[in-house]
Every structure is written in C-alpha cells, then in structure tokens.
Amino acid sequence: MMIFLYFLLIIVIIALIITINSFISFIWLRVPFVTTPKWVIEKFVDKIDLKNNSIVYDLGCGDAKVLFALEKKFPNLKLIGYELAWWPYVVAKLKIKLKKSKIKILHQNFYKANFSDADIIFCYLIDTVMPKLESQLKIQLKPGAKVFSYGFKFPNWQPAEIIPNPLKPKGSKINFYQK
Ligand SMILES: C[S@@+](CC[C@H](N)C(=O)[O-])C[C@H]1O[C@@H](n2cnc3c(N)ncnc32)[C@H](O)[C@@H]1O
C-alpha cells in the first residue's frame, strides 16, 4: 500500500512539474508547447530535397520529433533545434542520448541566433511571433533557403506554396517560403 502511495505521489509531482513548466513557458514565450501533427512531419520529410550536408533548423523544436524524423531519412544532415522551455528541451536531450543521435539542441532564444548558414528552417509557433521572425529571417537567410511554417504565415512574405492537410483540407496548413 505504501509503495503504491509513493508511486502515486511521484506521478502527481511529475504532472505538477510539467504543468507548471508549460505555464511558465507560455507566460514567458507566448508560444505554448504543442506537438507537431504526424501528417505535417510526414509531408515535411517527404517534400524537402536535400544535399547530404544540408543544414536544417527547427525553431522551437519541442522534444525534437521533427528533427528525429529527418535524421531517420537523411542520417547525414546537420540538424539543429532551438528550444527554451525546459521540459521539452530535457526530453529532447534524453532522446538524443538514448538514440545516440547527432542532433544538436540548444537551450537558447532563436531570436538571438544567426541562420545565415541555413538551407531549411522548420517552425510551428504562433501568429503573434511571426512578424518578428519574418524580419529576422529576411535579413539573415541566404538566397535559396527554404522555410516551412506549420499553422502560421508571415505577414508580408508571400508563400511559394501552401500545403493542406490531405485528410482535413480546411484545417491548418504548412506554409512554404523560399528566399
Ligand atoms: C508549438 S511548439 C512546437 C513543438 C515542436 N515542433 C514539436 O513538435 O515538439 C513551439 C515551441 O517553441 C518554443 N519557443 C517559442 N519561442 C521560442 C524562442 N524564442 N526560442 C526558443 N524556443 C522557443 C516553445 O517553448 C515551444 O515548445
């Protein structure tokens, strides 16, 4: 009985830590941690054409599931994720250790980064941050660099393509941009 109670207590503490962490991250960043849908990852991985040594960034990578899907298909890419919320960052780091992956995850604010070497950027953020990110990427990205933004558009940049969910054509879409 005592063991069961201890076990229950540990579960409750973990759930509390996750909830408090998600709440603090949301207040701080204004972007909640919401996992990228499976169809988006499949379409993204399917759609991108890459050279062996291409550099791909995921801005707000969560637990890095998008980067892991890429690494599975293209093992030689340079894959870098930025994530400021502690919980998904720690989970991503643990997954990297367990899978002996070469993905690099930075616990840093992507607004302070430089993406001039990026070939591809993936992001799933929120509408309120898109104007600031658009200004940053328009300055930093090299010609030909590609951006895939799930769910949210840049306010002044025309997407080269809008990719709908094949099962829910009216749902959120992937916006594809090319510099
Ligand atoms: C909608 S979630 C995307 C999760 C991820 N694509 C996945 O499938 O797991 C957005 C993430 O962006 C992170 N984020 C928001 N602003 C950030 C910033 N300025 N620098 C780094 N990470 C940021 C949030 O902490 C959140 O986890």
Could you tell me the strand content as a percent range?
15-25%
- Helix-strand sequence: HHEHEHEEHEEE
Radius of gyration: 17 Å
Q: What count of structural domains?
A: 1
Helix % is 40-55%
Task: Give the N-terminus to C-terminus distance in angstroms.
Answer: 62 Å
Oligomeric category: single chain
Corresponding CATH superfamily:
Vaccinia Virus protein VP39
Q: Structural class per helix/strand content?
A: alpha/beta
The CATH C-level name is Alpha Beta
Any ligands, ions or cofactors bound here, and which?
Answer: S-adenosylmethionine
Q: Average pLDDT value?
A: 91
Q: Ranges with pLDDT <50 over ≥5 residues? A: none
**In which order are the strands of the major sheet placed?**
3-2-1-4-5-7-6
Largest sheet: 7 strands, mixed
CATH architecture: 3-Layer(aba) Sandwich
Please, how many helices?
A: 5
Number of DSSP E strands: 7
Shape: globular
Q: What is the fold named in CATH at topology level?
A: Rossmann fold
Written description of the protein model:
Helices cover 40% and strands 17% of the residues. The chain is globular and about 65 Å long. It has 179 residues and is of the alpha/beta class. It has a single domain, classed as Rossmann fold. Strand 2, helix 4 and strand 3 form a beta-alpha-beta unit. The chain has a seven-stranded mixed β-sheet with strand order 3-2-1-4-5-7-6, with helices on one face. Bound molecules: S-adenosylmethionine. S-adenosylmethionine (SAM) binds at residues 25, 29, 31, 33-36, 60-63, 65-66, 82-85, 88, 109-111, 124-125.
